């Protein structure tokens, strides 16, 4: 139950941060700053839906796989999570003619990895305080 609450808290925290970073990167590269906050809000709403539908169940699957592997070293455990979170990023970034779209690879990657790192931080924080 505690793990599910931590996942939900990470889902609540990560979309505004990752959408802010995505919109900031695109506005710095394009030089257009007209509707910055509205784009952040718009992207964050879609990321909330995306993380609740895909991120939450996938996080439970990743936690189950990491628990089965029973790796004692934190660095190897972290690298395993990075590799496992790379799978949906690559699958979602494939366009119709089976080519990777760099723009969606960047957006999904930033969204998933921001979520992953916030989740790892919250897990460390709660296990340290327990």
- How many independent structural domains? 1
The helix-strand sequence is HHHH
What is the count of helical runs? 4
- Helix coverage percent of residues? over 70%
Any idea what the radius of gyration is?
A: 16 Å
Q: Got a strand count?
A: 0
Instruction: Look at the helices and sheets and give the structural class.
Output: mainly alpha
Shape: globular
Major β-sheet, in short? none
Distance between the termini: 15 Å
- Poorly predicted tracts of residues: none
This entry's quaternary arrangement is single chain
Global mean pLDDT? 89
Strand content: under 5%
Describe the structure.
This protein is mostly helical. The chain contains four helices and no strands. α1 crosses α2. It is globular. The mean pLDDT is 89.
Name some characteristics of this structure:
single chain, 130 residues, mainly alpha, globular
Task: Give the helix/strand layout.
Blueprint: H1 2-30, H2 36-69, H3 74-92, H4 102-129
Helix pairs in contact: 1-2, 1-4, 3-4
Care to give the gist of this entry?
By secondary structure, this protein is mainly alpha-helical.
